[in-house]
């Protein structure tokens, strides 16, 4: 027993020493910028995590290989969150200070539970929480949440876009009266997030909304689908997490004979990894995309050439380049890098590392015009948008796609907007103001 | 020879009843306490305080609760996370709805609320045993989380169903920095550990063990099974509730009911098994093993391989190693980590001789 104990003890000591090492204050090299990558590569959500964070890392590698951010090289540290709120908090604290002693400037949990777990720490720690199409929706109000962004749209705009699409298929909003929509969701904050907007729109349109929840991890959905068969809805909006749950949703729909082309999947279930396991049962399912998949975008081709050509890619399977999650990760990293450039320009720190507050200013100044997107090689990949002091959400526009059994067909030529964008904005501001008054937060004045 | 029992004479009842009869044990404990209270808050980094020590202490309390029920009273239960949720949401609502409520009172009351729920869900233990009881207690896990999810009142009608834990305020002073919160958690943990150790060796603990070893015999000897089992359930749930409230208020800070899922209950169960059934100190080892080992493995692999190896592989490898270690422990030391510590003490007593 003794040798084993000794070895265990010494191994523990080594680990403890290593754990302590990054905390020791180091001297930051001027031309380095530290980024945090809280990835989720194992467990039921691994398809999402490997693709998304793989895209982020690939784009950062690409930037480094093509001269850095005005000469500043990006460095990063990774931490495994397992898509678990408790582990995300640990990762947040661990990644807060990088190996080179720099503080992290941006955190992206790729998950609503994780985002909620850290959202209240942002202002104090001066870190930007970049929620890429997930997370707390009313954070889109920059007057209340100055450190939190929703640059790729949020769940309220997403559900509005979906209902808009349904209305188009049904032949107009007036035809929606009396229709029945089932919101089938995982029973978590993430699954319920679209409901405030959805309930309001359903009420306004005279739509009968039925909410059915699935307990996590959502692999068991039989009783819920039997309930759907009884309800006979016209549409189902599916809010699942993890390819297991998402694929099960389609196979169960096939079993009870619910038409797949009356199902709309959430952005976090609308990827190749979610569709393929369901096989033929997936054909016809609609999804919405805040970042359009595909390999034909010039930026994707360049990354493929520069990064994967040199064998430096992060994906274990290079075939996944151009898939939904990977492209989404690339788009997220593009926003980080553009924010870094903005921050350097605003604060006169060209070619130098920036701090959290400077990065925040840079992120808030993001302005993706058509010209900018063309210059980046991303035309058509994301919708143009501009952030501002009060407006922390992006375009709120999505493309509608349909799975054809092999890949996604893009149904809408343009990005589809919510029927009434001012209405969604009003909901966001009302919710944020309520939160601010309940929690004694100050509402910033925006110029 | 570092450790001697010989020469320890007890000259009074007070000495006989000491929690730690050996001087070496007391010195060691004193040292640990001095380091924990006086050194760590000032020297440890925020990462260590807020991401390692605080969750570890909170989960140790929960494991202690599970250990009282499972290790001492022999009632296999699977509802620890449910009681944690009860404690966390009780504490949130108490502070939210009762303006003058001081934090220590809120923690105490949330523990008592969890204990009351524990008594209700302990009732089946009078009829069913073993695995069947585990299944019956599963109901508490799902029921508590379902109730909190279903009724918006518990979450103050937050649309997303997530609560933001209030700041800890004791006597008008806010305890918000990692070191301050660590001290709050540490104080409560030390007090409750001291209480648990005394309960475990006192009449309550002996009653539990009698019921565990053979409940018919215990009943014949005049023990009330109803009282003993429900007492164990109540105290266990109290510890889980306090641990859950502290976990929510000092570590997560914003909580959704889904965070207290069945997985967490299983992890608490493993903490007790790995740490050592029927040992108070084992709760700390077990919580450390289950909670912190994956973190250290993650840090270790990232430090060792950096970006040279695909992080997906190392992340998967961490889980493999973690699983293998659990199996190895169960094979080579089924009595848990607490037994390893006992073995070490034995060795120190005999040193430098082998036998």
UniProtKB/TrEMBL annotation, chain A:
Residues 1-30 form the signal peptide. Residues 37-405 form the Leucine-binding protein domain. It holds the Pfam family Peripla_BP_6. It comes from the Bacteria. Keywords: Signal. CDD domains: PBP1_ABC_ligand_binding-like (cd06334). Belongs to the leucine-binding protein family. This is Amino acid/amide ABC transporter substrate-binding protein (HAAT family).
UniProtKB/TrEMBL annotation, chain B:
Its main location: membrane. CDD domains: TM_PBP1_LivM_like. It is a multi-pass membrane protein. GO terms for molecular function: branched-chain amino acid transmembrane transporter activity. It comes from the Bacteria. Keywords: Cell membrane, Membrane, Transmembrane, Transmembrane helix. GO terms for cellular component: plasma membrane. The chain crosses the membrane at residues 27-44, 50-69, 76-95, 101-123, 130-148, 181-200, 230-252, 264-282, 289-308, 320-341. It is found in: Cell membrane. It holds the Pfam family BPD_transp_2. This is Amino acid/amide ABC transporter membrane protein 2 (HAAT family). It comes from Rhodovulum euryhalinum. The lineage of its organism: Bacteria, Pseudomonadati, Pseudomonadota, Alphaproteobacteria, Rhodobacterales.
């Amino acid at each position: 027993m003794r040798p084993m104990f000794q070895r265990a003890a010494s191994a523990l000591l080594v680990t403890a020493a290593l754990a302590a090492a990054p905390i020791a204050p180091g001297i930051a090299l001027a031309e380095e910028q530290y980024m945090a990558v809280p990835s989720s590569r194992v467990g039921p959500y691994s398809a999402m995590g490997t693709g998304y964070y793989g895209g982020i890392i690939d784009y950062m590698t690409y930037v480094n290989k093509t001269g850095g951010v005005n000469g500043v090289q990006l460095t990063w540290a990774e931490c495994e969150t397992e898509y678990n709120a408790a582990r995300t908090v640990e990762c947040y604290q661990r990644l807060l200070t990088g190996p080179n002693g720099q503080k992290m400037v941006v955190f992206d949990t790729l998950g609503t539970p994780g985002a909620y777990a850290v959202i209240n720490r942002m202002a104090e720690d001066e870190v930007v929480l970049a929620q890429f199409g997930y997370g707390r929706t009313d954070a889109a109000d920059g007057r209340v949440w100055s450190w939190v962004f929703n640059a790729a749209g949020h769940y309220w705009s997403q559900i509005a876009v979906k209902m808009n699409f349904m209305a188009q298929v049904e032949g107009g909003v007036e035809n929606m009266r009396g229709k029945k929509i089932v919101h089938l969701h995982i029973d978590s904050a993430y699954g319920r997030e679209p409901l405030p907007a959805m309930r309001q729109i359903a009420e306004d349109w005279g739509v009968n909304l039925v909410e059915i929840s699935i307990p996590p991890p959502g692999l068991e959905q039989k009783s819920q689908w039997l309930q759907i068969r009884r309800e006979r809805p016209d549409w189902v909006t599916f809010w699942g997490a993890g390819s297991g749950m998402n694929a099960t949703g389609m196979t169960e729909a096939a079993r009870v004979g619910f038409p797949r082309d009356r199902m709309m999947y959430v952005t976090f279930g609308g990827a190749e990894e979610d569709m393929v396991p369901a096989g033929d049962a997936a054909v016809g399912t609609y999804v919405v995309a805040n970042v359009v998949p595909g390999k034909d975008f010039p930026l994707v081709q360049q990354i493929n050439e520069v990064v994967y050509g040199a064998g430096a890619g992060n994906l274990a399977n290079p075939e996944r380049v151009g898939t939904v999650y990977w492209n989404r990760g690339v788009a997220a990293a593009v926003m980080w890098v553009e924010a870094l450039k903005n921050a350097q320009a605003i604060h006169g720190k060209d070619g130098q590392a920036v701090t959290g507050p400077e990065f925040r200013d840079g992120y808030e100044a993001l302005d993706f015009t058509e010209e900018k997107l063309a210059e980046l090689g991303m035309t058509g990949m994301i919708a143009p948008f501009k952030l501002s002091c009060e407006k922390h959400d992006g375009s709120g526009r999505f493309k509608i796609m349909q799975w054809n059994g092999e890949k996604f067909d893009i149904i809408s030529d343009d990005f589809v907007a919510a029927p009434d964008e001012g209405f969604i904005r009003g909901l966001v501001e009302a919710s944020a103001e309520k939160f601010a008054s309940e929690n004694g937060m100050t509402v910033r004045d925006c110029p | 020879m570092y450790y001697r029992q010989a020469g320890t004479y007890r000259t009074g009842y007070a000495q006989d009843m000491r929690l730690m009869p050996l001087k070496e044990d007391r010195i060691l404990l004193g040292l640990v306490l001095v380091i924990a209270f006086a050194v760590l808050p000032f020297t440890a980094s925020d990462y260590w305080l807020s991401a390692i020590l605080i969750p570890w202490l909170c989960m140790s309390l929960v494991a202690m609760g599970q250990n009282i029920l499972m290790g001492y009273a022999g009632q296999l239960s699977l509802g620890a996370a449910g009681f944690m949720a009860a404690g966390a949401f009780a504490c949130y609502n108490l502070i939210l709805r009762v303006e003058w409520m001081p934090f220590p009172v809120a923690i105490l009351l949330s523990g008592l609320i969890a204990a009351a729920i524990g008594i209700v869900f302990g009732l089946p233990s009078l009829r069913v045993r073993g695995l069947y009881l585990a299944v019956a207690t599963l109901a508490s896990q799902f029921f508590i989380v379902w109730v909190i999810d279903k009724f918006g009142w518990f979450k103050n009608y937050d649309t997303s169903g997530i609560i933001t834990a209030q700041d800890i305020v004791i006597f008008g002073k806010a305890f918000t920095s990692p070191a301050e919160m660590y001290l709050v958690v540490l104080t409560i943990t030390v007090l409750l550990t001291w209480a648990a150790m005394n309960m475990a060796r006192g009449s309550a603990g002996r009653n539990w063990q009698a019921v565990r070893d053979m409940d018919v015999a215990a009943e014949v000897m005049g023990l009330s099974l109803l009282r003993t089992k429900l007492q164990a359930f109540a105290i266990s749930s109290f510890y889980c509730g306090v641990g859950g409230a502290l976990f929510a208020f000092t570590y997560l800070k914003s909580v959704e009911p889904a965070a207290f899922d069945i997985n967490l209950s299983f992890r608490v169960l493993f903490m007790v098994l790995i740490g050592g059934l029927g040992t108070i100190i084992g709760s700390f080892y077990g919580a450390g093993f289950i909670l912190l080992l994956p973190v250290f493995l993650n840090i270790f692999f990232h430090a060792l391989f950096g970006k040279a190896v695909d992080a997906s592989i190392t992340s998967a490898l961490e889980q493999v190693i973690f699983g293998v270690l659990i199996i190895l422990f169960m094979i080579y030391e089924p009595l848990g980590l607490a037994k390893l510590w006992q073995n070490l003490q034995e060795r120190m007593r005999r040193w430098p001789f082998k036998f």
